[in-house]
Design goal:
The chain is built from ten helices and six strands. It has about 200 residues and is of the alpha/beta class. α4 packs across α6. It has a six-stranded parallel beta sheet with strand order 2-1-3-4-5-6, sandwiched between helices. About 55% of the residues lie in helices and about 15% in strands.
Length: about 200
């Protein structure tokens, strides 16, 4: 089975590759971040994408979205240290088949991979319970604008990046601030990130 492992922490990536290679007939290709993983997905087929959620470049959610949009046969399992409810809901909404915490035992990971390849969905029970809580109030455009604001971009830079008018960018940001009861755009981004909505 061909697995693409997208993980930006070198030690974690190396350990996961070693464990998977020992546990089964897995051919693991490593990607040091989301951008490298996206390039590899465009070049060759993989049976499974095993991806961290927060990485430089593309996030695990972005990669899952790409797999869905391109109608690739690749199954997606997200692994994370962050048990944030918003992440689980967003990942599942765009077709991820599994969502696990990184501190799960390797047997659990291998079992999840087997189940996912058999067409089942696997979600860590603790994450599943958390995900039944609050609903994400942000629209996709508000989320994109907030993410850029969190990176320190000005309203005009956000407008340019999203190909929208400056006034529209300002509206998206103020809507997000209002929905999250935040003091300003940076506070809104912080709240959204904590909840896994960014």
């Amino acid at each position: 089975m061909r697995i693409l492992l997208a993980e930006d922490q070198a030690m974690v990536r190396g350990a996961l590759t070693a464990l998977l290679t020992l546990e089964g007939d897995y051919q693991v290709t490593e990607a040091a971040d989301g951008t490298a993983a996206l390039a590899l997905l465009k070049q060759q087929p993989f049976d499974l994408l095993l991806s961290d959620i927060e990485m430089p470049g593309q996030t695990g959610i972005d990669l899952a979205q790409y797999v869905k949009q391109q109608k690739l046969a690749t199954k997606v399992v997200i692994i994370t240290t962050f048990g944030r409810a918003g992440y689980v809901k967003r990942a599942m909404d765009i077709g991820a088949s599994g969502f696990l915490l990184k501190d799960a035992p390797v047997e659990e990971l291998v079992s999840a991979i087997t189940q996912v390849m058999a067409g089942k969905r696997v979600i860590d029970s603790e994450l599943l319970l958390n995900s039944l809580g609050e609903q994400d109030p942000l629209s996709d455009k508000e989320r994109q604008a907030l993410r850029l604001a969190a990176d320190g971009q000005s309203t005009s830079e956000i407008a340019s990046a999203l190909f929208i008018a400056e006034g529209t960018a300002r509206n998206y940001l103020s809507e997000a601030i209002n929905k999250l009861n935040a003091a300003n755009r940076i506070d809104a981004a912080r709240i959204a990130r904590q909840k896994g909505w960014l």
